[in-house]
Amino acid sequence: MYNIALFGPPGAGKGTQSHKLIEKYKLAYISTGDILREEIAAGSDLGLKAKTVIETGGLVSDEIIVQIIEKKIKTNTEVNGFLFDGFPRTVVQAYILEGLLLKLNTSLNCMVSLEVPQDILMERMLERAKKESRADDTTDVIENRLKEYRNKTVPVAEFYKDKGICYSVDGVGSVEDIFDRITNVVEQSLTKTWLNVVLFGPPGSGKGTQGKMLADKYDLVYISTGSLLRKEIEKGTEMGINAKEYMEKGDIVPDEFAIKLIEKQIQTHPDAKGFFFKGFPRTIVQAYILDGLLRKLNSSVSCVFNLDVPILESMKRLNARSKTEQRRYYDMDTDVIIRRLESFETRTKLVLDYYEKQKNIYHIDGIGTEDEVYQKLSESLELAFKHAR
Known about the structure:
59% of the residues lie in helices and 13% in strands. It has 389 residues and is an alpha/beta fold. It has two domains: 2-191, Rossmann fold; 197-388, P-loop containing nucleotide triphosphate hydrolases (Rossmann fold, 3-Layer(aba) Sandwich), CATH 3.40.50. The protein has a five-stranded parallel sheet, with helices on both faces. It has a five-stranded parallel sheet with strand order 7-8-6-9-10, with helices on both faces. The mean pLDDT is 87.
């Protein structure tokens, strides 16, 4: 999902550019003024609350605004993302939006600020007042609105500059010229947006084989905590020695091991386009950990894939692998295989439910030749990436 906030002072042309962006990127439009009016017209509970406040001359609270925005996001499930026009208007609202998007497992990817000199803004707004017969849009009123914008909204731009996602765009020129400038920075921000994939499946489902091929195809950094732990074991590190005890029993290693390994991989690939996580997270706690690790870097899980393979088929595959050079030491013990499969059924499937609720999971039939399964995953991944971006 790709989310944009379009900023600019009154008269900067946000409305015109918003509609062009919505059409180009297939976004849903969120303007607090518009959706407030929609809720009031619909007579919803939120609309009635807002109407009562407005009729008594008050300002609609952030609490009501965030509820109508959340409702708008949840009821627009077929779009590629959202365009926020003129929201957030204050730093407080910026924090609110951060929390709301975190709750919905997404984030703001790009904040575009239209820059227009005050004399041109005054000229545009006075001209608009004449055309639309806005008697209340006098020079003094317009100056006060611009002052209000500078005092409250400009600090919001600083908030997003600190996050590295604020882009200033010259808002003077033809509509098409300004739109070209905006799309240039949007495309630039798209290249900075990580695509993070999680691949699930029971032991023996082919995650490792498929994960490596897909990571190579899409130029993503492949992260397999199992492979990284085996390297630690081979090197005889303290972590490897401790991890071996767990892995030999088919148990999940302590979470702090995985955190250290994943953080190291992320830090050593600063120019990555994204990461491909194979077999992690395996528990709900690890799902929260991964969310936290990525959120710390202003990113999130883009999509999740689960290879559906029956347990009996998994056991047959693991037994067959135990007779090859690709065997793992835990493939040799039937009790360990059963324990690993039980762990997947009782603990990892809860993680699948977690991602199911976030509606970013794809179930892929894992039965077929290596090439057939790869083709199914590739086709679904293409669709997922289009939605993610």
